[in-house]
Structure formats: structure tokens, C-alpha cells
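Progress note, sequence design subtask.
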């Protein structure tokens, strides 16, 4: 079996077929994805597909992580809200591309797991919050960027309100029964300008009341 660093480099070669940002690719080349899925074999951790992490959640496909990170157009200064911490991998990648990341997870066990992994990789500029992502984090708003890593069936109004003027929101939207679209919204004069980034498949974005 190739070394962990070799597996990581091979994965980034695949991601680079869709992602052009050298900064994003460099971060993914350096980020140990296996730290976020310790229950899976090393080869699976560096395959370009999602993996289950329990509680109905997954760690996203690496190519999609790269695409969403690139779509946020980060220069190292932005404050990001991530909705759907999951394993913590997306937040870890963003931590090396932005100024600060606040990430919210509805499942307490996943939030705790993500905090441990983020500490392990040294992502000290990430704060993990337990709460309902549909509500966002109004006390900390506005955010320069918002990224959602689960699919709501419609755009949550609270997240739109918490996006700063000139900011970007990247979110997969659509029901589980049909195609979801990865959408990029720019806030201009209080309104959103939408760009369609293509078809995707994410787990549904749930409310806190739906978590058992």
C-alpha cells in the first residue's frame, strides 16, 4: 500500500480535475483526511467518495470539498460560518484558507468528535457550536462567507440574513427525491445573485427537533 502522503497526493490529483485553485489544492494535499474518519481503512479515507460517520451523516467527497472551498473565493481574511460540521474535515480545510471558521453541528456527538479531530490537526481558528443550523449563529453575524454541507429543501432565510453585504453563500439545495443543485449566491444591495455550480448529492439538512 502507498504511504499516507502518497495516497493524499494521488487524491489531490483527482480533485485537481475539477478544482483549479492552487491554494485549495495545496491545503488538501497537506490535510490528513484520515484523522477525520479513523474508523475507516486508510485507503478508503483517501478515496474520492463520501464515507459514513454515523448519525446519518457523511464526510463529503473530497472533490466536492475542493469545489465548495474554491467557490468561496477565500483570501485568508474572511470570517466563515459553516453549517453542518460533520467530521470536521471541511472546516479544517477552510481553517487554512480563511481568517476564522465558526461551524455549527446539530448532533452533539458529531460536534465532539469533530472538535477532537480539529485539535489533532491544529485547526486553532475553528470554533465548533452545537445547535440548529437552520437558525445559524445570529449572535456572531454577519459572516463574510457561509457554506452549508447538508442539503436544505429551500434556502434558509436566517442564513441569508446573516450573510454580510458582498458576501458569498455556497449551499446544496433540493429534496432527497430529486436532483440537488450546488448554488453560489452573492449578496448585492441586500439581494442574492445566484450561480448554479451543478448537480450534487448531500444528506438532508435537519432541524434540531428531528435529531433523536
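Output:
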Amino acid at each position: 500500500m502507498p504511504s499516507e502522503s502518497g495516497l493524499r497526493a494521488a487524491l489531490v490529483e483527482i480533485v485537481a480535475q475539477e478544482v483549479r485553485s492552487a491554494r485549495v489544492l495545496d491545503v488538501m494535499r497537506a490535510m490528513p483526511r484520515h484523522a477525520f474518519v479513523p474508523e475507516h481503512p486508510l485507503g478508503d479515507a483517501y478515496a474520492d467518495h463520501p464515507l459514513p460517520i454515523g448519525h446519518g451523516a457523511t464526510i463529503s467527497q473530497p472533490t466536492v470539498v475542493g469545489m465548495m472551498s474554491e467557490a468561496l473565493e477565500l483570501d485568508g481574511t474572511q470570517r466563515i460560518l459553516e453549517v453542518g460540521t460533520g467530521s470536521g474535515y471541511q472546516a479544517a480545510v477552510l481553517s487554512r484558507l480563511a481568517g476564522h471558521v465558526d461551524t455549527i453541528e446539530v448532533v452533539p456527538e458529531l460536534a465532539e468528535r469533530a472538535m477532537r479531530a480539529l485539535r489533532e490537526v491544529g485547526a486553532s481558528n475553528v470554533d465548533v457550536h452545537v445547535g440548529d443550523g437552520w437558525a445559524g449563529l445570529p449572535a456572531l453575524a454577519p459572516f463574510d462567507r457561509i457554506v452549508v454541507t447538508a442539503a436544505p429543501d429551500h434556502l434558509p432565510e436566517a442564513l441569508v440574513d446573516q450573510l454580510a453585504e458582498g458576501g458569498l453563500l455556497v449551499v446544496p439545495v433540493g429534496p432527497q427525491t430529486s436532483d440537488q443543485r450546488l448554488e453560489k449566491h452573492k449578496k448585492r444591495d441586500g439581494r442574492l445573485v445566484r450561480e448554479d455550480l451543478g448537480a450534487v448529492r448531500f444528506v438532508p439538512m435537519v432541524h434540531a427537533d428531528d435529531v433523536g
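Helices lie at 4-15, 22-30, 42-45, 62-71, 89-95, 108-120, 157-162. Work on this subtask will continue into the next period as scheduled.
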